[in-house]
Amino acid sequence: MSFANPTPRQAVFELIFAGALWGFGFVATQWALTTWNPVGVLFWRFAGALFLGEILYLIFARTQKTPDGWKEDFKGSIPAGLLLGSFLLLQTIGLQYTTASKSGFITTLYVVFVPIANWLIFKKRLSFAMLTMVGGALMGTFLLMGTGLETFTQQINIGDLWTLGSAALGAAHIIYIGRFTQKMKNPFRVNNFQSLWSLVAIFPFAFFMSDLQVGPINSKALWGIAIIAAACSVLAFYIQVRAQKVLSDTTASMLFLLESPYAFIFAYLLMGDRLTGVQSLGALLILGAALGMVLLESGSTSKTQSE
Predict the structure, then answer these.
(1) pLDDT digits over 138-152, tens only?
(2) Whole-prediction pTM value?
(3) How far apart are CA 116 and CA 134, in angstroms?
(4) For residue 213, what is the DSSP state?
(5) pLDDT in tens, 57-103
């Protein structure tokens, strides 16, 4: 394991791999939910990720020269961890009620939410074309959720609404990581600290709940926890943090889009998830709108830099 920054080409391939890990994470989370409630799943996920991450850091830090500045990384990771913990809490609650496929596609909306948040918070320009992409994404979400105009409130899946909320928090996490990467000293350690603060974010819920376990412990649930802790949290989020040091938020966002098709493929093969024709159209609209938003933002950034 290397703590050095990757080249842009390496970062692209690493994010493609991370997308596959995150995509499988939707299935692994549903496995874990057969034994623990959402708070229990995240408690063991972040506790396991923190323990494993620090063990790996101590092992590899002895053989590699790592930069100082852990205090700055520790402080800077606080917002990242609190946002990540909240984001995954809402997403995990949603996975109790919706399918891994739908959750993966709805989560992709964070790519659309990023420029909207930049417009609202940082006053960045939001063009008519971008607004059109937002409208397309919302229409896609409506179709994917399988609702009808006349019976919207009766048909809507509460899990899809939780996932929508998680997508908004996911956008905030991407924006913060993109701004923090230029200051961080050690991306691997930052990811460990992020797991710590994510644990802090969900700890109050764990403390006040009488029982985090809702079913008997089974092998699939244990594999689920192991996968989301080691592969999705330690490895994939480390890849994201270090990749965003050398890639623009726009390029990284485009690669994040791979998460949802990966989630659908794994859920299709392992859990028998299926989408209706209308829901498939909705999924394509979300992916198309997200991709269009990334391309529009990329073009706008290039034009600004050339001027």
Answers:
(1) 788 777 776 554 444
(2) 0.81
(3) 9
(4) B
(5) 888 776 666 556 688 899 999 999 999 999 999 999 999 998 898 89
**Mean pLDDT in residue range 104-110:** 86
DSSP, res 233: I
* Alpha helices (H) in the chain, listed in sequence order: 8-32, 38-61, 70-94, 100-107, 110-122, 128-144, 152-155, 158-180, 187-208, 219-226, 237-243, 249-256, 259-271, 277-306
Residue 9 and residue 247: Cα distance in Å, rounded?
A: 9
**Which pairs from 60-68 meet CB under 8 Å and 24+ separation?**
60/1, 60/3, 61/3, 64/2, 64/3, 66/3, 66/186, 66/189, 67/185, 67/186, 68/185
Q: Is the pLDDT of residue 307 over 90?
A: no
Tokens of 251: 């390029």
Q: What is the pLDDT of residues 164-221, one digit of tens each?
A: 999 999 989 988 988 887 788 888 889 999 999 999 999 888 888 778 888 999 999 9
Which amino acid makes up residue 94? G
> Distances from the Cα of 94 to the Cαs of 46, 64, 258, 277, in angstroms?
18, 41, 20, 22
Structure tokens at 36: 């623990």
